[in-house]
């Protein structure tokens, strides 16, 4: 009987060891080198995709800025050509002072590129692998020092409601009970920022999701505020630059010149970013969700203080009641 019990005990131990061997064999399959290699290979493929996409966005922005600078040079050459014709025709009527002023305006030295930003871009590209897991485009890093924009309610059209914090503008059919003062827009649905700037680099973002009509941009304080002149609209005069969105179409405006952006037709962005560089004389509009450049204006030099400006647009047949909301640009926008 004792022998039988001992035999049964040994059999149980043998079964336990056999079960353990089975588990170890399963574990051996689980940790095979090929499985680990495949997982690592997939991660590197993801990293490669992020790098290629980031490179594409970065090069696209640089190409856009380059084209804007080339366009400005061509415009200045055209100005010089017209000036030469006028001099040939009316040389006796044009004084030396007028000629000198025109030569100053067409000085090639006024056309600059933002070398500091280019140096930052190169440095960030070299260190890209250090923060690749964040999957944030390099250009976003350049704009992390975002401007603190507060809208000036004393400039807002009476049909706009400005939030107490000055961070949103909402269209309403009701004419607000506000003071009639020279600083207020009384024709177009505009509002500008309280504070302006005259140096450095500035970036801000606005939430535009759910809207079918809006305008965003920058303006000198000299933009017309009163009357029916079209120059009080953003981008229609020399004083302002803007991008306009209306029913799926994007258009860039400055000095009354319209630049249609057909490659963006039908695309929707939750945020729009506006970047301005005083050293480079640059105004650039971007889809902040993916840092996709819309259009860049290369102005050479700015001649006055700049203010952020926006227009939330009318109700557009009941489709455009949402507010334009100024965002915290340090936080990423959701990609649509």
Output the CATH homologous superfamily of the largest domain. SPRY domain
In the CATH scheme, the class of the largest domain would be: Mainly Beta
The counted number of beta strands is 13
Question: Structural class from helices and strands?
Answer: alpha+beta
Proportion of residues in β-strands: 15-25%
* CATH domain fold name of the largest domain: Jelly Rolls
Nearest-integer average pLDDT: 84
- Straight-line N-to-C gap: 78 Å
Helix content: 25-40%
Order of strands across the main sheet: 1-2-13-4-9-10-11
Number of domains: 2
Query: If classified by CATH, what would the architecture of the largest domain be?
Result: Sandwich
Order of helices and strands: HHHHHEEEEEEEEEEEEE
* Low-confidence runs: none
In angstroms, what is the radius of gyration? 30 Å
Briefly say what this structure is:
Residues 129-333 form the B30.2/SPRY domain. By secondary structure, the chain is an alpha+beta fold.
What features would you highlight for this structure?
20% strand; 336 residues; single chain; seven-stranded antiparallel sheet; 2 domains; six-stranded antiparallel sheet; Jelly Rolls; 5 helices; elongated
General description of the model:
The protein is an alpha+beta fold and 336 residues long. It folds into two domains: 63-140; 146-326, Jelly Rolls. The protein is 34% helix and 20% strand. It has helices spanning 2-30, 33-90, 96-105, 115-126, 138-142, and strands spanning 160-162, 168-171, 191-192, 201-207, 213-219, 240-246, 249-254, 257-260, 271-277, 282-287, 292-298, 307-311, 324-326. The model has no long low-confidence stretch (mean pLDDT 84). This is Si:ch211-28p3.4. InterPro entries: B30.2/SPRY, B30.2/SPRY_sf, Butyrophylin_SPRY, ConA-like_dom_sf, PRY, SPRY_dom, TRIM/RBCC. It comes from Acanthochromis polyacanthus (spiny chromis). Residues 129-333 form the B30.2/SPRY domain.
């Amino acid at each position: 009987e004792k022998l039988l019990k001992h035999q049964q005990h040994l059999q149980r131990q043998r079964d336990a060891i056999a079960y353990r061997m089975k588990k170890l064999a399963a574990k051996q399959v689980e940790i095979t080198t090929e499985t680990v290699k495949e997982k690592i290979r997939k991660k590197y493929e993801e990293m490669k995709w992020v790098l290629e996409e980031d490179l594409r966005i970065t090069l696209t922005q640089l190409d856009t800025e380059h084209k804007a600078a080339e366009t400005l040079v061509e415009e200045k050459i055209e100005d010089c050509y017209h000036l030469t014709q006028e001099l040939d025709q009316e040389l006796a009527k044009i004084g030396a002072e007028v000629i000198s002023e025109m030569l100053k305006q067409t000085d090639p030295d006024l056309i600059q590129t933002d070398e500091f930003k280019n140096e930052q871009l190169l440095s960030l590209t070299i260190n890209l692998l250090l923060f690749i897991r964040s999957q944030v485009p390099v250009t976003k890093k350049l704009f992390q020092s975002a401007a603190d924009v507060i809208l000036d309610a004393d400039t807002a059209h009476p049909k706009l409601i400005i939030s107490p914090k000055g961070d949103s503008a909402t269209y309403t059919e009701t004419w607000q009970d506000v003071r009639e003062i020279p600083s207020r827009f009384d024709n177009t649905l505009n509002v500008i920022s309280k504070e302006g700037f005259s140096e450095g680099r500035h970036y801000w973002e606005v939430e535009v999701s759910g809207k079918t009509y809006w305008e965003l941009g920058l303006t000198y304080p000299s933009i017309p505020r009163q009357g029916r002149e079209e120059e009080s609209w953003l981008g229609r005069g020399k004083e302002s630059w803007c991008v306009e969105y209306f029913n799926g179409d994007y258009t860039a405006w400055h000095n009354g010149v319209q630049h249609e952006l057909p490659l963006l037709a039908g695309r929707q962005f939750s945020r729009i970013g506006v970047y301005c560089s005083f050293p480079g004389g640059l105004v650039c509009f971007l889809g902040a969700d993916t840092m996709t450049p819309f259009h860049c204006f290369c102005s050479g030099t700015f001649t006055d203080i700049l203010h952020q400006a926006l227009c939330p647009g009318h109700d557009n047949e009941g489709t455009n009641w949402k507010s334009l909301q100024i965002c915290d640009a340090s936080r990423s926008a959701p990609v649509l």
